[in-house]
Design goal:
about 180 residues, alpha+beta, five-stranded mixed sheet
Length: about 180
């Protein structure tokens, strides 16, 4: 492609748009395989916070959400917060259905940057379309926990509060050449 060649520019843009869905699914699969160490540390150190179920257990949870009129992606949250002292069997649809109204879906964003201030000012992170859509559908049953791994400080917030507080928003397409 030569610089200034508009025919191939249009084709390139069309290719990017066409591949965006494939790229998004691939990137989410890769990021979903292990999770971040910050997420894992927070989940393991918080009694009522449990990791997002996987496999059949995740299918049961998403199926019960769907039955209640909520359709979200399995990759749209990192953990689940249960009421204190509660336990859940994700393979038991009746148990999931009974507890569903009290489950809070949690997205965790962690940073190791020493430049992030106590109020989390200067914390740069992204929210995926699926995370935003889950927050919209779940309402108060969806939270975001910001975690500063340097100071150990946590901030519980919401996608709406983040959007209101953000100083800048940048939309992007992720590609690998």
């Amino acid at each position: 492609m030569a610089v200034g060649d508009t025919n191939t520019d249009d084709e390139g843009i069309a290719r990017l748009v066409g591949e965006a869905a494939f790229r998004r699914v691939h990137l989410e699969r890769l990021s979903n395989q292990t999770g971040s160490s910050g997420e894992q540390t927070l989940i393991s150190s918080t009694e009522d916070l449990i990791p997002r179920p996987r496999g059949a257990a995740l299918r049961v949870l998403l199926g019960e959400l769907e039955r209640s009129g909520i359709s979200i992606a399995g990759t749209s949250f990192d953990a689940i917060l249960l009421p204190s002292g509660s336990t859940i069997d994700f393979l038991d649809a009746d148990n999931v259905r009974r507890l569903l109204p009290s489950i809070t879906f949690v997205e965790i964003k962690s940073t190791k940057k020493p430049s992030v201030r106590e109020d989390f000012g200067g914390f740069f992170f992204s929210l995926t379309e699926k995370e935003i859509e889950a927050a919209r559908q779940l309402g108060d049953r969806h939270i975001v926990i910001l975690q500063n791994l340097v100071t150990g400080k946590l901030l519980q917030t919401s996608v709406g509060e983040i959007a209101t507080r953000s100083r800048s928003t940048t939309w992007q397409v992720s590609v690998q050449l």
